[in-house]
Amino acid sequence: MKIKKNDTVLIISGKDKGRKGKVIKALPKTNKIVVEGMNLIKKHVRPKKQGEKGQRIELPAPLDASNVKLICPKCKSPVRVNKKRICKKCQSQV
Predict the structure, then answer these.
(1) For position 28, which CATH number holds?
(2) Whole-prediction pTM value?
(3) CA–CA distance, 92 with 72 (Å, rounded to integer)
(4) By residue range, what is the domain housing residue 32?
(5) What number of other Cβ atoms are within 10 A of residue 26's Cβ?
């Protein structure tokens, strides 16, 4: 998988299309990534103590790595990356 943790990516398909974010977690076995603040789902949480209320929290869900493009830190444009992680536009290491 060419995308790693702490990379900045652009989402190219899905409900968050066109938004940029930082990769929190990479899951190479399933070819999925988790992007900070993107692809949010609502999870219902039960109250843990008596008298406490239940709540709905939003969590980022994994999305497929093929639905994102890596953003080059040097030229700031979304690029396709080869196995050596070299930007095809500016030839710099990503």
Answers:
(1) 2.30.30.30
(2) 0.83
(3) 8
(4) 8-79
(5) 18
